[in-house]
Amino acid sequence: MSNEPIDEKRRKFLVAATAVVGGIGVLAASLPFATSLLPSAKAQAGAAPVEVDLSHLQPGQMLTVEWRGKPVWIIYRTPAMIEDLHKHQDQLRDPESLVEQQPEYAHNEHRSLNPDYLVLIGICTHLGCSPKYVPNAHELSPSWPGGFYCPCHGSTFDLAGRVFKNVPAPINLAVPPYTFLDEKRILIGSDWNPGQGIPDGR
């Protein structure tokens, strides 16, 4: 057994150095794991707002785009479609859109910022099927005002995405957040544009 005196300074230095090296090792080993928890570039891109050009959309037509993996419908409503929205209130389950399925600025009869354009998430609120666009009055039945029909279980919605009574779907179709960048361009996934100001409900 050695009788040499213990160098306390050297021992403290070695203990501290070992702790630092060990800490760096743990950090280096954990970085790949922590990085794996971050959303992928594809996931980040999928959650990003989507800009849509409406200049080629004609009255009565519907355009479908994808946002966050969901179909989003944009319908350019005709004046007759807009006029007919108040004529079947008594047939709707939630005509005033009391269930929060839309941003506050779309809490109106036409459920949109601009009455001409309806923007909806195209997923039935019953079991997640995708309804069909059936815009023409009387196309499904003599009383059909035009709207959306889900062939999976028969749910129906009007041209504001409001659900009719006596169908399986419990609530209206959802309206995503969106804003108009100009008269013919919208941004889905963002409802505020610094250049435009806060939407006023138009």
Topology:
Layout (H helix, E strand, L loop, with lengths): L7 H30 L3 H7 L2 E4 L8 E6 L2 E7 L2 H5 L33 E5 L10 E3 L12 E3 L6 E3 L19 E5 L2 E4 L14
What can you see in these coordinates?
The chain has 202 residues and is α+β, with helices and mostly antiparallel strands. The chain has one domain (46-188): 3-layer Sandwich (Rieske Iron-sulfur Protein). It contains 3 helices and 9 strands, in the order ααβββαββββββ. It has helices at 8-37, 41-47, 79-83, and strands at residues 50-53, 62-67, 70-76, 117-121, 132-134, 147-149, 156-158, 178-182, 185-188. The strands form 3 sheets. The protein has a 3-stranded antiparallel β-sheet with strand order 1-9-8, with no helix packed on it. It has a 3-stranded antiparallel β-sheet with strand order 2-3-4, with no helix packed on it. Strands 5-6-7 form a 3-stranded antiparallel β-sheet, with no helix packed on it. β6 (147-149) and β7 form a beta hairpin. The longest helix has 30 residues, at 8-37. It starts with 7 loop residues before the first helix and ends in a 14-residue tail after the last strand. Mean pLDDT is 84; it is low at 38-45 and 194-202.
Observed structural traits:
21% helix, alpha+beta, disordered C terminus, three-stranded antiparallel beta sheet, 20% strand, Rieske Iron-sulfur Protein, elongated, 202 residues
Could you describe the largest sheet, including whether it forms a barrel?
3 strands, antiparallel
β-sheet strand percentage: 15-25%
Indicate the CATH topology.
Rieske Iron-sulfur Protein
Given the helix and strand composition, which structural class is it? alpha+beta
Task: Indicate the radius of gyration in whole angstroms.
Answer: 28 Å
Mean pLDDT: 84
The H/E string reads: HHEEEHEEEEEE
CATH superfamily grouping: Rieske [2Fe-2S] iron-sulphur domain
Shape: elongated
Helix content: 10-25%
How does CATH name the architecture?
3-layer Sandwich
Trace the largest sheet across and list its strands.
1-9-8
Distance between the termini: 90 Å
**Overall tally of structural domains:** 1
CATH C-level category: Mainly Beta
Total number of β-strand segments? 9
Number of helices: 3
- Uncertain regions spanning at least 5 consecutive residues: 38-45, 194-202
